[in-house]
TrEMBL record:
The keyword Transferase applies. Belongs to the bacterial sugar transferase family. The chain crosses the membrane at residues 20-43, 55-79, 100-118, 124-145, 301-321. Residues 295-481 form the Bacterial sugar transferase domain. Keywords: Membrane, Transferase, Transmembrane, Transmembrane helix. This is Sugar transferase. It comes from Micromonospora endolithica.
Length: 487
């Protein structure tokens, strides 16, 4: 009996990933080499207990061998063992960086075991320096590579997975909106496949071609897609989903199943298999406990340090406001904060003193929806206020609110509304302290609709963590410098 052999095709996805992986391998080797040479040059001159200077074969010293070969190769081995080259982690933000950090821990353990096994008395200072330098250099380079990759995806849609959406039209369109809203994630929907034909007279309107009744695997190959995304468990019967997975074996295609539980990520989700049935455990959001205490301590320490460090800038902004426009330097307004408690937020004044009196006359020009009032070219904003808003410098005095415990560095933005305006799901925003920056601010700021802003704020409330806060703070810098959505 002839045996069927499935040839794994070289899809466009595989080609771009292989090129990206090859670049990472070269970059990681060069990074490890530079880190090793840096430590050998700066640290080991003062503490020459790590490198062996004896000559091997009269030509190549052990020093050069360790610096130029052993350390880079050992580091790349640790990265591979930690899954830093796994295609499922490439370009996936914090997941990729976590694997680099795990490789660094493994590197430290490996050096310690080698020293113990070879009975070498290694310099602790130099070992610590090489471990820390490897971590810092690699994290910076990997973060830069990810920025370049996401930029390519946003501009050209290349280096992305081409996705066929399978499921009910409403579910497929919802997933299409999520994917197209964040092209940097590398998922580019190209078509929709409906499991059942539309009802007679039902109109099907979609931004991509819609197919019905085709065999999925041949259709995906014909369209040049490399990923099938099943939109919710209700889209296919369990046996149909299992059969689809069997059909995809050996084809090089990826299968993604989108659960009905949305906007829940990170450590709150755990898969628990029982008798072949994968159960998705969703834990309650952590909005209290030790993590919250650590967040408060870090907030206050960072706010105090920031106020001291930025005091010359704050004084300069205050003088500029005072010299260019009559009126107070600061603007204080009542905002709704944690658990509905009202407080006065500190901001540099960016509008003329009669801004509140002119508000009613501008109501019809409001370009926002929901509880917000926004106009791109608001005539009430002073000339210097436009520059302050563009770089979000007017928000810096809110470090005082953070120091007083009324706000946090990261969280939903406090809005100038009454407590009674927060009804239904929107009220969940008040479960955490409002922040100077947040997921809303790094995802579009004033360009977002009220619905999107609320969705992002609730996502933060349900999934917040200290790591998430650091990631938002990091992204805030690039968003502010790019002046995206600020007016």
């Amino acid at each position: 009996m002839a045996r069927t052999v499935f040839a794994r095709p070289v899809t466009p996805r595989a080609r771009w990933r292989r090129r990206y992986l090859a670049c990472l391998l070269v970059i990681d080797f060069i990074t490890a080499l530079v880190a090793s040479i840096t430590v050998a040059t700066v640290v080991d001159k003062a503490d020459a207990g790590f490198w062996d200077q004896r000559v091997l074969g009269g030509a190549v010293s052990a020093f050069a061998l360790v610096v130029n070969v052993v350390v880079p190769l050992l580091w790349m081995t640790m990265l591979a063992a930690a899954g830093a080259y796994d295609r499922r982690a490439l370009g996936r933000g914090t997941e990729e960086l976590k694997r680099v950090a795990r490789a660094n821990v493994a590197m430290a353990a490996s050096v310690s075991f080698l020293a113990l096994g070879l009975k070498k008395d290694l310099s602790r200072t130099t070992v610590a320096a090489i471990i820390i330098t490897l971590l810092v250099y690699t994290l910076v380079v990997r973060a830069a590579a990810r920025v370049v990759l996401r930029r390519i995806r946003r501009v050209t849609h290349k280096a992305s997975q081409k996705v066929m959406l399978v499921g009910r039209l409403s579910d497929a369109l919802a997933l299409h909106d999520v994917m197209t809203r964040n092209p940097g994630a590398g998922l580019h929907p190209i078509a929709i496949h409906l499991p059942q034909s539309p009802r007679p007279g039902e109109r099907v309107v979609a931004p991509v071609p819609v197919y019905v009744g085709w065999d999925l695997v041949p259709l995906v190959r014909q369209l040049g897609a490399d990923t099938i995304a099943v939109c919710g468990p209700a889209s296919l019967e369990s046996y149909e989903l299992r059969r689809l997975a069997w059909q995809m074996e050996g084809t090089g295609l990826d299968l993604v199943v989108v659960p009905q539980v949305t906007d829940v990520t990170g450590p709150r989700i755990h898969v628990r298999p029982i008798e072949g049935l994968p159960l998705l455990n969703v834990e309650e959001p952590t909005i209290s406990g030790f993590s919250l205490l650590a967040k408060m301590i870090l907030d206050k320490a960072a706010a105090l340090f920031g106020l001291v460090l930025l005091s010359p800038l704050l004084v300069g902004i205050a003088l500029a406001i005072k010299l260019t426009d009559r009126g107070p330097v600061m603007f204080r307004q009542v905002r709704v904060g944690h658990q509905g408690q009202a407080f006065k937020v500190w901001k540099f004044r960016t509008m003329y003193t009669d801004a509140e009196q002119r508000l009613e006359a501008l109501r019809e020009r409001n370009e926002s929806d929901g509880l917000l009032f926004k106009i791109k070219d608001d005539p009430r904003v002073t000339p210097i206020g436009r520059h302050l808003r563009a770089l979000s410098l007017d928000e810096l005095p809110q470090l005082v609110n953070v120091l007083m415990g009324q706000m946090s560095l990261v969280g939903p933005r406090p809005l100038p509304t009454e407590d009674d305006d927060y009804r239904g799901d929107v009220r969940r925003r008040l479960l955490v302290r409002p922040g100077i920056t947040g997921l809303w601010q790094i995802s579009g700021r004033s360009d977002l609709t009220w619905e999107d802003a609320v969705r992002l704020d609730l996502h933060y409330v349900d999934n917040w963590s200290l790591v998430y806060d650091f990631a938002i703070l990091w992204r805030t810098v690039s968003v502010v410098l790019a002046r995206r959505g600020a007016y």
